[in-house]
Amino acid sequence: MDAVFCFSCRHFQTDSGVEDSFRKGLSDWKKLSSKLEKHAHSQAHLNCMVKWDNYKIAQHLTTRLGLWKQ
């Protein structure tokens, strides 16, 4: 498949009603720049980025706690 995906939205989006072209893959190369710009500033994408950051923090803490208990 020749398409662009958004990692955070693909893995952390939970709102089914939100526009999801970057979850399913966007292959409209002529409009990619404007769609990327719009997507990067969308509230849905920003929410997914927060969820991804929280996930990474939780993973780090879990790893650190696991090492501490040994």
UniProtKB/TrEMBL annotation:
Highest taxon above the source species: Eukaryota
Protein name according to UniProt: Uncharacterized protein
Organism: Dissostichus mawsoni
Source organism phylogeny: Eukaryota, Metazoa, Chordata, Craniata, Vertebrata
